[in-house]
Amino acid sequence: MKLSTAIFQILLGPLALAGAVPKGESKITYGGYKAFRVATHNNPAAIKEKISKLSAVTYNIDNREHLDVAVPPQEIAAFEALKLEASVLHEDLGADIAKEGTVAAYEGVSAQAVPSLTWFNAYHAYADHVTFFSDLQAAFSNQSELVTAGTSFEGRTIFGIHLWGSGGKGSKPAVYYHGTVHAREWISTKVVEYIAYNLLTQYGTNTTVKAILDKYDFYILPVVNPDGFVYTQTTNRLWRKNRQTRSGQSCVGTDINRNWPYKWELTNGASTNACDETYKGLAAGDSPENKGLVAFTLGLKNSKGIKLFIDWHSYGQYILFPYGYDCSLKPANYALQSSLAAGTAARIKLSYGTSFTYGPSCSTLYATTGDSVDYLDSVGLAQYAWTIELRPTGSGTGGFVLPAAQILPTAIEQWEGQKYLLAAA
Ligand SMILES: [Zn+2]
Question: Could you say which protein family the record assigns here (predicted)?
Fold first, then answer.
């Protein structure tokens, strides 16, 4: 760790370095849990009702065609007795989480050295992501700087990197990425890191990359839900929300992607129950993370504007554009967005044959309110505001966890997709 990293970690606060399981909570291993994909035939509520007596964990709550659930060992027989139309995603979820890789240590690099690509062979602890970005920035200090977008509920800084090309710092419209807003979606952080890494390391040698970075300033926030991310590593791999507590509520956590202050007040796109995975909070934009992200977003809007925003998620293999809050609405530039999404999906597929479905998020997946994409489109005035749901799709390929061996292929195919998109947009 270099001095700049040390200073940056002081900025992030003491909690950022804590790796221990929170007091009173033991780590959930999910040993013996069996995970299923249950067909819902467009009626997920009926399936949820049928399994409501079980303590099964549901995962992809945003999809109306199927519901992915992890069933504890003592309830597998009861689940199978329901005779639902289901396929197996994980025979033993705990074993697959273990296989996903013990989170690897990152030693850092000596001053101004470029971090190794081996970073993308494993998942890492939160503090190591901080170090990685600090190292990457130090190696390319003439065209990058570390940025911050406010502070999480538990006091961690929401950090990121700003990259620029020949026009100089802050001279071009923004390309703006968020990773790991949903705590368990680790692959999204790795993907935006890979894009940042390639923009910087290939700028001097690749004319396509140079043209992209000369045309846009990039703002890449790899972990916008740091408290949740740390919690997935200390305690519960499948945690989704932030770690915000609220007086009078026993359940922890607000869904940051249902708390953005745009169409937040509408019903049916989020939950008002604090115990639910899509809990929207008590007021629009009232989570500490959303406050920081809103301020950062408005800063970009008010400087050179936002060309492209992508909120990176997993899983399902979707490219989604506005709107989430109303299934009958399409963005004004719908034809253009569809054509760019089709082209991006086609380019992604060239690397490994991975297929992505695209379309407006509400009609393609499910209604969402207070989500980032609607906010970035309508308030942030981003020309393109997308959600990309990364690997896997689920069937036959797992779902809840993505093996470390798939980090690099997932990142490579998305880098190819972004190079197409940013040249064409
Ligand atoms: Zn997500």
Answer: Belongs to the peptidase M14 family.
Least confident of 93-102, 122-131, 271-280: 93-102
What residues are neighbours of ligand 1 (ion), with CB under 5 Å?
182, 185, 313
Cα–ligand 1 centroid distance for 182 (angstroms): 5
Catalytic status, residue 389: yes
- Span 72-104, pLDDT tens digits: 999 999 999 999 999 999 999 999 998 886 678
* Residue 313 bridge partners (DSSP): 389
Interval 111-125 mean pLDDT? 93
Among 237, 232, 2, which Cα is nearest to 132's? 2
What separation in Å is there between the alpha carbon of 72 and the centre of ligand 1?
A: 23
Q: Are 237 and 184 in contact (CB under 8 A)?
A: yes
Residue 400: which of 182, 102, 225 has the closest Cα? 182
Which residue in 185, 193, 389, 413 is the catalytic one?
389
Distance from the alpha carbon of residue 76 to the mean position of ligand 1, in angstroms: 26
**Residue ranges of domains in the chain:** 34-91, 117-232+282-424
pLDDT tens sequence across 128-180? 999 999 999 999 999 999 999 999 999 999 999 999 999 999 999 999 999 99
Band of pLDDT at residue 396, cut at 50, 70 and 90: low
314 Cα–ligand 1 center, Å: 6
Q: Which two tokens stand for residue 134?
A: 């600090």
Residue 38, pLDDT > 60, answer yes
CA–centroid distance, residue 256 to ligand 1 (Å) = 10
Q: Is residue 11 predicted with pLDDT exceeding 60?
A: no
pLDDT band with cut points at 50, 70 and 90 for residue 57: confident
Rounded distance between C-alpha atoms, residue 280 and residue 191, angstroms: 27
Task: Tell me how far the alpha carbon of residue 206 lies from the centroid of ligand 1, in angstroms.
Answer: 32
